[in-house]
Design brief:
The chain is an alpha/beta fold. The protein folds into two domains: 1-30 and 50-68, no CATH class; 83-284, P-loop containing nucleotide triphosphate hydrolases (Rossmann fold). The protein is built from nine helices and nine strands. The protein binds adenosine-5'-triphosphate and magnesium ion. Magnesium ion (MG) is lined by residues 47-48, 176.
Amino acid sequence: MAVKIRLRGLTKQFEVKGRAVIALAGIDLDIEAGEFFCIVGPSGCGKTTLLRILADLEPRTSGEIQVFRGLDVGSELNGSSSGSARGSRAEQPLNSMVFQEQSIFPWMSVRDNIAFGLKARGFSKPARYAVAEPFIHKVGLAGFEDALPYQLSGGMKQRVSIARAFANDPEILLMDEPFAALDEQTKIVLQSELLRIWEETRKTVLYVTHSIDEAIVLADRILVMTARPGRIKDILDVKAVFDRPRNVEVVKSSAQFGALFGRIWGLLREEVEMAQAQEAQGQRN
Ligand SMILES: Nc1ncnc2c1ncn2[C@@H]1O[C@H](COP(=O)(O)OP(=O)(O)OP(=O)(O)O)[C@@H](O)[C@H]1O
Ligand SMILES: [Mg+2]
């Protein structure tokens, strides 16, 4: 499998009130094309910072980042199904990010929100809507095309965000706790939908979550990070345990799930305690 994202010695340091805060310290990592890569780690260990650097929303302090373009596994799997409406490779955006908080435009319909990224790339209105259409269906929003965000539930709004990110057809998808604010039942439904869309498109996904359950259900591999400064503690191979396509309920009720959960929590526990100690220390200062 080809490498899609290569990080070498990636380091990020913030200055806070004249003091250096090292968020990421020397991350070396290869992520494969078409991989669903989950990141877990204690609060404040640099997960969001890592995604923001990859999205070019934040500069890195040092180290190297390479994203290899044109290794879209989905387009290879689906042959020419990506269609001419999608534009040429050169137009393909490098990344799309899905955030925890709702980041859709309140004044735009579901359809316009989903098609938004394509507008910025110069697609005509009919071309934008043609690309958006199947994604509206894939995330179960058929019939809500003309609805405005205030008419949608929290889960439906996150569906719009996810459809927009996939419709944008980026080289990599960056997802920062997209389901964290949702209730447990909605979360399970959306995890299943995300898995299905990902199976169809095979985008390279970097997915940050606090939920060990969610990471196991979704990931090919799970990166466990240390407390700040964020480093790689371990990487677990989930795809060796659970085949694709996956069924969320079947995975969660299996014996291997419990064993993996225990291993990950075993790695995370002391890091979470360390992060809490750091936070208490910060509050005293
Ligand atoms: N713009 C900034 N200026 C200064 N410090 C920052 C900035 N952004 C992040 N940090 C610091 O960098 C560290 C990592 O933050 P980050 O948001 O990446 O953590 P996280 O792993 O995403 O945490 P959480 O799980 O709570 O979302 C934290 O100590 C945070 O305070
Ligand atoms: Mg974060």
